[in-house]
């Protein structure tokens, strides 16, 4: 475990100087939540990212800020954030310009994590075809590294919320260099498990599993 964390920290320092991190003074990674049009509640569970960040700091010693940025895909600051998070229950409208901005961001080192909060699936898939019309979302095998580092999930994603009582599924989209640039979780609602305990009243073991899987996602994004 310590060897993996040490490797991550080395890679993280290198990433700090990349095209996505342009600030001269670095004060810790900030996860950016995507504000989008269409009426979907992109803002739900405001305690989710701070709680996940706190968990990551405590369990990996990673320099991550316990707050989130809130940005749209048209903001000038988009390229300052190596990891984007997007969730919601409803409609997501993506303009041609926003699609091109997201494509440019992802092809230049960025990473997008999307968590379906029940109702986002159809719009998400439509948006991805607009961003990458030449590529397909594919389900990741349980052997994928995102389910292994630093916490092991031998059976893939943990099931946090029932929704349609279907098994949780994780999908990925790769660039031409076989780098995972988009990770999408469906029928699990991982991020609800990051929220304060009283919000969804998830049992402790569910919240722990959600926070561990969230840690894997963020660290995978930064390490690769």
General description of the model:
- There is one protein chain.
- By secondary structure, the chain is of the alpha/beta class.
- It has a single domain (2-175, 213-223), classed as Domain of unknown function DUF4159 (Rossmann fold, 3-Layer(aba) Sandwich).
- Helix content is 33%, strand content 18%.
- The chain is built from six helices and seven strands; from the N terminus they run H-E-H-E-E-H-E-H-E-E-E-H-H.
- The chain has helices at 2-16, 48-60, 96-107, 121-131, 197-200, 204-223; strands at residues 29-34, 64-71, 83-88, 111-116, 138-139, 169-174, 180-186.
- Strands 2-1-3-4-7-6-5 form a seven-stranded mixed sheet, sandwiched between helices.
- Strand 3, helix 3 (96-107) and strand 4 form a beta-alpha-beta unit.
- Helix 2 packs across helix 6 (204-223) and helix 3 (96-107) crosses helix 4.
- The chain is globular.
- The two termini are 18 Å apart.
- Residues 1-26 have low confidence and may be disordered.
Précis, in short:
The chain is an alpha/beta fold and 224 residues long. It has helices spanning 2-16, 48-60, 96-107, 121-131, 197-200, 204-223; strands at residues 29-34, 64-71, 83-88, 111-116, 138-139, 169-174, 180-186.
User: What's the total number of strands?
Assistant: 7
- Strand % is 15-25%
Q: Roughly how many Å is the radius of gyration?
A: 16 Å
Task: Give the count of structural domains.
Answer: 1
Strand order in space, largest sheet:
2-1-3-4-7-6-5
> How would the global form be characterised?
globular
The residue ranges in which pLDDT falls below 50 over 5 or more consecutive positions are: 1-26
N-to-C terminal Cα separation, in Å?
A: 18 Å
Number of helices: 6
Structural class: alpha/beta
Helix content: 25-40%
Q: Which CATH-level-2 architecture?
A: 3-Layer(aba) Sandwich
Average pLDDT over all residues = 89
């Amino acid at each position: 475990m310590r060897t993996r964390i040490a490797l991550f920290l080395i890679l993280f320092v290198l990433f700090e100087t990349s095209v996505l991190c342009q600030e001269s003074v670095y004060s810790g990674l900030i996860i950016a939540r995507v504000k989008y049009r269409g009426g979907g509640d992109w803002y739900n569970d405001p305690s989710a990212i701070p709680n996940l960040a706190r968990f990551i700091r405590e369990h990996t010693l990673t320099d991550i800020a316990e707050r989130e940025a809130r940005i749209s895909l048209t903001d000038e600051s988009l390229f300052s954030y190596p990891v984007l998070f997007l969730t919601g229950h409803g409609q997501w409208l993506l303009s041609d310009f926003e699609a091109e901005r997201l494509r440019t961001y992802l092809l230049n080192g960025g990473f997008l994590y999307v968590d379906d909060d029940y109702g986002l699936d159809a719009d998400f898939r439509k948006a991805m075809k607009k961003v990458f019309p030449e590529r397909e979302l594919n389900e990741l095998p349980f052997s994928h590294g995102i389910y292994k580092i630093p916490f092991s999930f031998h059976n893939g994603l943990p099931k946090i919320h029932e929704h349609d009582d279907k098994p949780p599924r994780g999908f990925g989209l790769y660039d031409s260099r076989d780098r995972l640039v988009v990770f999408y979780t469906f029928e699990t609602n991982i991020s609800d498990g990051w929220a304060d305990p009283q919000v969804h009243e998830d049992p402790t073991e569910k919240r722990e599993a959600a926070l561990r899987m969230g840690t894997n996602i963020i660290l995978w994004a930064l390490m690769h």
